[in-house]
Automatic annotation (TrEMBL):
InterPro entries: ABC2_TM. The chain crosses the membrane at residues 38-59, 227-248, 269-293, 305-330, 337-357, 390-407. The lineage of its organism: Bacteria, Bacillati, Bacillota, Clostridia, Peptostreptococcales. Keywords: Membrane, Transmembrane, Transmembrane helix. This is ABC-type multidrug transport system, permease component. Its main location: membrane. It is found in: Membrane. Residues 43-402 form the ABC-2 type transporter transmembrane domain. GO terms for cellular component: membrane. It is a multi-pass membrane protein. One of its GO terms (molecular function) is ABC-type transporter activity. It comes from Maledivibacter halophilus.
C-alpha cells in the first residue's frame, strides 16, 4: 500500500514537471514571437514615453491652473484679525489663491468685472462679537456658484468660522460652570480671558491652517497626477495586450494551434504560456515607467514598487484572458476590433478610472465593486487587497477560464 502511494506521488511530480517543461517551451516561443514584432514594442515604448513626458510637463507647469484672485474687504483692524489673515494668506492656500486687500466698493467692482472669483467682507467689530460670546461670520459674495474653486473657498471659510465659534462656545460653557460654583464676575472674566488668550494664540499663530499629509508632501500636491497616471498605465496595458495577441487568430486559421495540440501539448500549456508571457512582458514595461514616475516625484520605495508590480501582474492576467477570449470567439477582424473598443470603453467609464466614482451615480458605485478595472486601479493606487476584492478576482479567473475552454470548443480549433 505504501509503495503504491509513493508511486502515485512520483507520477504526480513527473506530470507537474512535464507540464512545466511544456509550458516553458511554449513561453520561449511566445518570447521569440514578441521580439520579432519589434515595431509593436517600439510603438508601445514611444506611447508610454509620451504619457510620462505629459505628466512631467503638467507637474513642471504646476499642474492644472486653478490659481485665482480673491478680494478681501477687511473693516476690523484688530491684531487678532490681522494675525489670522496673515496666517491664511501666507500658507499653502496661496499656491492656488491670490488675495487682494481692497475696499468694499472696489471689491464689488472687481467682482462685477470678473477679475476676482469672490469677495470676502469682514465687518468691523467681528473680534468684539467673539469676545462677548456671539457668533462671528464672514460675508462672502460670489458670481459662479458652480466653480470648483469657489466651492473649495466656501467650504474652507465655513470650516474656519465653525472652528472659531465652537472654540468660543466652549469657553462660554466654562463661564456658566464658574458661575454655578459661585465665582464672582471679575474672577469669571479673568479666567475666561486667560482661556480665550491661550485658545486664540494657539489658533491664530500656528504654522499652517492646513494639515500636512504624507501624500501631498510626497507628490507636491500631485495626487491627481498619480490617479490618472495609473489610469494611463491600465489603458496602455489593455492596448499592449491586444497587440501582443494579434497572432492568435492567424494561428487558429492556419492550424498552428491544432498542430501544437497534436504534438502532445494541451490547451492549458498553450494558453498559460501566452497569458503568463504576455503578463510578464506588460508588467515589466509598465513597471519601468512607474519606477521613473516614482523616482521623479522622489517617492520611490522598493516595497511599494514591488507591490505595484505584483498587483499589476495579477490584474494583467485577467485582462490577457479576456482579450484571448475575444480573439478566439470572434473570427471577423473588423467586428472584433469594434467590440474591443466598445467593451473596454464601457468597462473603463463605469469603473471610475476615467471619471471618479464620486461624480457618478449610486448604481455605478455598486457595480464598480465587481469591475475588475476598479479593483485593479484601487490596488495600484495603494489600497489593500481585501477579502472581497480577492474573492471577486478569483471568481473572474474561474469564469474566464471556463469561458476560454468553451469558446475554444465552439471555434473548433
Amino acid at each position: 500500500m505504501e509503495s503504491k502511494n509513493t508511486l502515485v506521488i512520483l507520477m504526480k511530480k513527473l506530470n507537474l514537471k512535464s507540464e512545466y517543461n511544456q509550458t516553458s517551451m511554449l513561453a520561449k516561443m511566445e518570447i521569440k514571437r514578441v521580439t520579432s514584432q519589434i515595431s509593436n514594442v517600439v510603438l508601445l515604448v514611444l506611447l508610454l514615453i509620451i504619457f510620462v513626458n505629459m505628466f512631467i510637463f503638467i507637474y513642471k507647469d504646476k499642474g492644472p491652473k486653478i490659481h485665482s484672485n480673491v478680494a478681501l474687504a477687511i473693516e476690523d483692524n484688530s491684531v487678532e484679525v490681522k494675525t489670522l489673515l496673515k496666517n491664511i494668506t501666507e500658507n499653502k492656500l496661496k499656491e492656488i489663491i491670490e488675495f487682494k486687500e481692497v475696499s468694499l466698493k472696489a471689491g464689488f467692482d472687481l467682482l462685477k468685472e470678473n477679475e476676482v472669483i469672490a469677495l470676502i467682507h469682514l465687518k468691523e467689530g467681528t473680534t468684539e462679537l467673539l469676545n462677548y460670546g456671539r457668533p462671528a461670520a464672514f460675508d462672502l459674495y460670489i458670481n459662479d456658484h458652480s466653480d470648483i474653486k469657489v466651492k473649495f473657498l466656501i467650504n474652507y471659510l465655513e470650516s474656519l468660522v465653525k472652528v472659531l465659534n465652537e472654540g468660543q462656545n466652549g469657553s462660554m460653557i466654562y463661564w456658566d460652570i464658574m458661575k454655578s460654583k459661585g465665582l464672582d464676575f471679575d474672577e469669571r472674566l479673568n479666567n475666561l480671558n486667560r482661556i480665550a488668550l491661550n485658545y486664540m494664540a494657539a489658533f491664530l499663530t500656528r504654522g499652517d491652517v492646513f494639515e500636512s499629509t504624507d501624500d501631498l508632501d510626497k507628490f507636491y500636491g500631485a495626487a491627481t497626477l498619480n490617479y490618472y497616471f495609473v489610469t494611463s498605465l491600465l489603458i496602455i496595458s489593455i492596448i499592449s495586450t491586444i497587440l501582443f495577441h494579434l497572432d492568435i487568430n492567424d494561428d487558429i486559421r492556419k492550424g498552428r494551434i491544432r498542430r501544437v495540440l497534436s504534438s502532445g501539448y494541451n490547451l492549458r500549456n498553450i494558453y498559460s504560456a501566452k497569458i503568463i508571457t504576455g503578463s510578464i512582458f506588460t508588467s515589466i514595461l509598465m513597471g519601468i515607467f512607474k519606477g521613473i514616475f516614482m523616482i521623479f516625484f522622489d517617492v520611490f520605495v522598493v516595497t511599494e514598487f514591488l507591490r505595484f508590480i505584483s498587483c499589476f501582474f495579477i490584474i494583467n492576467i485577467i485582462i490577457h484572458m479576456v482579450v484571448i477570449v475575444f480573439y478566439i470567439l470572434i473570427d471577423n477582424d473588423r467586428i472584433r476590433d469594434w467590440l474591443f473598443i466598445l467593451f473596454f470603453t464601457v468597462l473603463s467609464f463605469t469603473s471610475g478610472i476615467i471619471i471618479p466614482l464620486n461624480s457618478l451615480g449610486g448604481l455605478f458605485k455598486i457595480l464598480s465593486k465587481f469591475n475588475i478595472l476598479t479593483i485593479g486601479h484601487n490596488l495600484l493606487l495603494g489600497y489593500s487587497l481585501t477579502l472581497e476584492r480577492a474573492f471577486i478576482t478569483i471568481i473572474y479567473f474561474f469564469i474566464i477560464t471556463v469561458t476560454l475552454r468553451y469558446v475554444h470548443k465552439i471555434r473548433r480549433v
